[in-house]
Design a protein that fits this description.
646 residues, alpha+beta, Jelly Rolls, seven-stranded mixed beta sheet, six-stranded antiparallel beta sheet, 34 strands
Length: 646
């Protein structure tokens, strides 16, 4: 971090002024008077003076100031990152522990987990886990309107994606998971006291976002606190269950919900009800949900590694294991010194040179995994023969990444425990100062205020998990009053490119976009996000196909042509998406159909508006789009009659 801002003060006032003068001929050829009396030159001198002052300031920043500037770009010192993933039970293995074990088990954070037959890399549970063997007795969606949809079989057999909270995903829609423990005594069995502090994991495997939208799995700022609430229901009572952590971002991406069951009764069968506090910005789509998965992180923890010091000033020693693992803002190591006075916890400091002679402090070189103790003037000297006990975590960085569908073994269980349905990924070496400077430059270019329409549109499409397929800014017309509001029209992706019956742009979805983009808007500018104004279009046609052609295949070709010409999102066809505000005309329809291969002639064609009235043109408002309400019987194709007109 100390190298994030090298000495930049290598240019002076005269250098900046000379650079500006050299560019005047190409940038402003009509400007010919470059003497000191010219007001433009005076302005250039002012800018050069301000630039010199800013560079001087940047080059003389203190370490804490440089760290603060780096934090503005979300850059912070961190160690290696351990790969993470989920271990699921294997549905094809009848001897899997989830099906055969009858006792709950607590997996400590230092439990060893590894691939079958592979001594390395080693993994540990991400939390202290309460592993409860059992099965899902019933999985259903209960909508606010009273409709119940059963997903039990679909989830158990992995037959495809389903909507756990329905098509709307409102705050009254509930996903109810009824779970039966193998242990008749309940989730804790006969050892409730031993499960104190352990969390129960519910694994979520989410379907990928439609339209190739970014999953944003690495953006923890997207949802630091789970938007979900959980309720445990038995025959006699309802108990609120805290969700301690949520790596699924509200079931929008693959991860695990970590539940604290400390206050629940010990019953064999219970129901977990999950819902959103305010409703979902986008209804989740799920491939699988399974209780009692095991979240894992690559690496291992070393507790109180022993180092004996000589009592010399500025004692240095290296840690036994490389690959120091810690998160930004987290203490990388815990240092304890045992001497004649007892065991003392020493604290880390950025520079020992800033410490007094009696302070129990140490300096850490995280990149080289090296610890430096004091010299008696700057920091206390550890006495000769003192035992320095160091606790820390390490990982193999990229070496911990594992492909999907590997078999895993967990300490304490015989045979194969389960498989990883998705890759175990995320392992990486710590970024160097060169990488951090490069990232800071990229962010300074891209993470700027949203000034132009192109800035706003691209930022909306880049929002993770919200599936923004199209976005455009509606420019005010000449007569509209200027209110300082920017109107952004956003459109959601369509699954498989098909237009749904219900308009997918909900008010919660639009508000989520506005909430994410508003902090990046310039001061004094108000952002309004709205859905396109859809105009319903109906088409009826009677056609004749060329001799020898199959009417059904010609009808399909016409359907493909019309869908492509009126497509609201980019599909597989050759035509681009429909532009907003462009009307639909009878003339266009006729030309599109006549140009379709196999169409001999049009015997009847009607363009109908929302009232089913035949018109020559359907106008589309600014920012709006036509919505073709297709009907399989609306387009009919027949064979040509014998001797018919050509």
């Amino acid at each position: 971090m100390s190298d994030l801002a090298p000495n930049l003060f290598d240019r002076r006032f005269a250098d900046f002024l000379e650079i500006g003068r050299a560019r005047l001929r190409s940038l402003a050829p009509q400007w010919t008077d470059h003497n000191a009396h010219d007001p433009g030159i005076t302005l250039m001198e002012l800018i050069a003076w301000a630039s010199e002052a800013q560079l001087y300031s940047l080059s003389h920043l203190r370490r804490d100031e440089r760290i603060a500037y780096a934090a503005m770009f979300d850059l912070a010192s961190a160690g290696t990152r351990g790969a993470t993933g989920l271990i699921w039970s294997d549905p094809l293995d009848p001897s899997a522990p989830a099906a055969t074990h009858v006792r709950s088990t607590v997996l400590s954070e230092d439990a060893v987990i590894q691939m079958k037959g592979e001594p390395a890399p080693l993994f540990n549970p991400e939390h202290r886990i309460l592993w409860i063997p059992g099965r899902i007795a019933r999985l259903e969606t209960r909508s606010s309107g009273g409709r119940i949809v059963d997903h039990t079989l679909l989830n158990e057999r992995g037959l495809g994606a389903f909507l756990p909270f329905g098509e709307i995903g409102g705050r009254s829609d509930v996903l109810a998971l009824t779970f039966t423990c193998n242990d008749r005594a309940g989730p804790f069995g006969d050892n409730r006291g031993g499960a104190v502090g352990a969390l129960w994991a519910i694994g979520i495997r989410a379907a990928p976002p439609a339209g190739g939208a970014d999953e944003g799995s690495g953006d923890d700022r997207w949802s630091r606190k789970s938007p979900l609430v959980a309720m445990l229901v038995t025959d006699d009572e309802r108990i609120s269950v805290p969700i301690v952590s949520d790596s699924t971002h509200g079931m929008l991406t693959t991860g695990a919900l970590m539940l604290d069951l400390a206050d629940v009764p010990n019953v064999q069968t219970f129901t977990i009800e999950l819902r959103s506090r305010t409703g979902f910005a986008r209804p989740p789509r799920m491939l699988r949900i399974e209780p009692s998965v095991v979240p894992i992180r690559q690496g291992r923890r070393l507790s109180r590694e022993l180092h004996v010091v000589t009592g010399l000033p500025d004692t240095k020693f290296a840690l036994d294991m490389p690959g120091l693992r810690f998160e930004p803002g987290e203490e990388a190591v815990v240092v304890e010194v045992a001497d004649a006075s007892g065991l003392t916890l020493w604290t880390r400091c950025d520079r020992l040179s800033e410490r007094g002679p009696g302070e129990t402090a140490y300096e850490l070189d995280a990149r080289n995994s090296e610890i430096t103790l004091g010299n008696g003037i700057n920091g206390k000297i550890a006495p000769e023969g003192a035992q320095v006990l160091v606790s820390y975590a390490v990982s193999d960085a990229e070496g911990g990444n594992v492909a999907r569908n590997r078999k895993w073994q967990v300490a304490g269980f015989q045979g194969v425990f389960g498989i990883n349905s998705d890759p175990v990924k995320g392992g990486a070496s710590p970024s160097s100062w060169v990488d951090q400077r490069r990232e800071a430059r990229r962010l300074s270019r891209e993470a700027h205020a949203l000034v132009s329409s192109a800035d706003i549109e691209s930022a909306a499409r880049a929002l993770p998990l919200l599936e923004v397929m199209r976005a455009w800014v509606v420019l005010p017309n000449g007569t509209a009053p200027r209110t300082g509001a920017v109107r952004l029209v956003a459109m959601r992706s369509r699954e498989d490119g098909k237009e749904p019956e219900r308009i997918p742009e909900s008010s919660r979805w639009l508000e989520a976009i506005r909430r994410r983009l508003s902090p990046r808007m310039p001061l004094g500018t108000r952002l309004e996000v709205m859905a396109p104004r859809y105009v319903d279009v109906f088409i009826t046609a009677q056609l004749e196909c060329d001799p020898g052609r199959d009417p059904a295949s010609v009808r399909d070709a016409v359907d493909i042509t019309l869908r492509g010409r009126l497509a609201l999102v980019q599909g597989e066809g050759e035509w681009p998406p429909r532009q907003p505000g462009v009307p639909v005309t009878y003339r266009d329809l006729s030309a599109w159909i006549r140009a379709t291969d196999g169409v001999r002639r049009i015997t009847a064609l009607q363009l109908l508006n929302a009232r089913k009235q035949s018109v020559d043109k359907i106008a589309v408002p600014r920012g709006g789009l036509p919505r073709w309400r297709s009907n399989p019987d609306a387009i009919r194709v027949s064979r040509p009659g014998a001797g018919g007109a050509r």
